User: What shape does this take?
Amino acid sequence: MNTFHQSIRRSIQNENLQQALDANTERRLKGRIAALASLSNWPERRQRAHAIRADVIAHLDSYLGQFISNAEKNGIIVHRAKDADEANKIILEIVNHVGADGHPPLQKLIAKSKSMVSEEIELNHSLEKAGHHVVETDLGEYIVQLRKEKPAHIITPAVHLRRSDVGKLFHEKIGIPYTEDIPTLTNTARKILREVFLTADIGISGVNFGVAESGTFCIVTNEGNGRMVTTMPPVHIALMGMERIIPTLDDLALMLSLLPRSATGQKLSVYTQFINRPLNPSASLRAGNQKRHLVIVDNGRTRLRNSPLQESLYCIRCGACLNACPVFRELSGHAYVGNDGSIAPYPGPIGSIVSPGLLGNNFVHLAQASSLCGACKDVCPVGIDLPKLLTRVRAGETQNQGNGLDPIAKFSLQMYSRIARHPRLFSVSQKFAALATFLVSPFSPWIRLPAFTGWGYSKDFPRFASKPFRERFQHKKINSVPESEVSRLRMQSQETLQSASNIKDKVEKFSEELTALNGNVRRVMQENLNDELIKFLREKNVDAVMIWDKVSGVDEAYLTAAGIRSERSGDANIKVGITGATSAIAETGTLVIASAKDQPLTTSLLPEIHVAVIKSSKILETLEEVMKLDEIKSSASIALITGPSRTADIEMTLTIGVHGPKELMVFIVE
Assistant: This one.
């Protein structure tokens, strides 16, 4: 029995793992369905997203050149790496140079946000081998790092663990009393990692999208660690797969309407960052200008682009196909191992294509771990035909011409292919197969296959239907809906949506959405703003605030007279931060906050409570409208904030307040 089959059996026999996976699957799928229900034109958006990704991959050199040119104009230092070794070498040189001043490289503290490319190139191993200290700051990644494991899921790294596992881990590794209370475990990680953020020499992050027209790159997170590692350290290194390009900001708005809904069931993630330039001293916590590096990685993507598996490069790494796949839902990512026993960096349906496509024959057999039921294709937000690509891998159509099939399986598929091309012969074969199942199991509706087939080890094989679908379909009366009725229903739907839009104004919609996300809203008149603000601060027993240089409508002298001290220093111990907001998005309950001189993003990030002040006239309806604002391109960094920070990395249990603020209060000024 090979390593892969052994890994499969271990996963199926692990009751703790099965319970953890069941909880993840149920909540992820329900969340996705609920989130997509708020999109009236999901199929059209999906088609547009597919077309955009297809255009990018077809003209990747052109878009990549445009993106790099604009990023460099913005002050980003861009590096290109042809493979994992070169990427690690580039990053190691940057890290060694930080603070060296002509002396031998010293150990650096590196705060790292989630990055699948870093797993692919084994970046942590490279940095640690050179003597540097790397700390994963995503809660799930932090947990698996303490366990010396690989992530088990693209989106939820610790999906294979239960709260008892994390409780034992924190007791043994951190020394806290054993507890299964998830808020206590989360708060423990917050306290430890807060010190890492404040003292790290370098921050490393992934990149979700790069925008060709502006040189902007986008990072999507929920916990706040992505904002921390890109804002706090004096040096930020972003790691991006070369295929993650989007032509325009409008296209980015489309992708952001699909990615969080498919990944975590949210309309918009808590923190969506647009990064254009390094931060200046007045906008960051540390002295001196920040340096931003962007490392763009090939590592087999060019070969994959020129192979029959090119469509896999359309992937936006939402993880929806993993949650939908009946095979992954029984195994988790740690079961997807290569011939050498190493865990594939990308598991599940997309991983079974990308891992062999990028890394070769060691992972080509992973494509066998699929029922080809099509669930992965149905949920893919960019419409990748995953079953088709999986069959291509099985047939040996990777760039290395590797073959994941044994001779018997290959012969069977070849015979099936020949029979399926002839309708009459295919029909006869279906009837023969149905008869064969009844002969093998005349008294039972189920056939138990031998264990050596792999399938029979844990699954039953049902009888074939007595009549093939074609015959049953031809005898079934089909009631079609007249085109006129379809048109009437479409018009009725549009009128209903328009009516709903007219009933609720943007302020009410924003308030409703933010409140549903555990945010708080107070609507005040301009002349009452300062009194209401002081009232709120006294409710929180606050006598000092971190505040922007200028917040529209807020009178600092009035606050001082009320006994509330204003600070600009970025003191991490101050409980409340007060900012303005450039804009807001009604349909998602999102604040738009741009960095500016003496208006650092840390004010909305470090304190436990974030207070934002926004004029009602600044609230827009959609993300697409926000993308047209001048600040999106002109500011060094923009944060889209949708509620207080949150995580569900432990048993899919929602916990408010991770690395960012635990509370968000928005004053809407009429």
About this structure: The longest strand covers residues 235-241. The chain has 27 helices and 24 strands. Confidence is low (pLDDT under 50) at residues 442-448, 451-455, 476-483, 499-503.
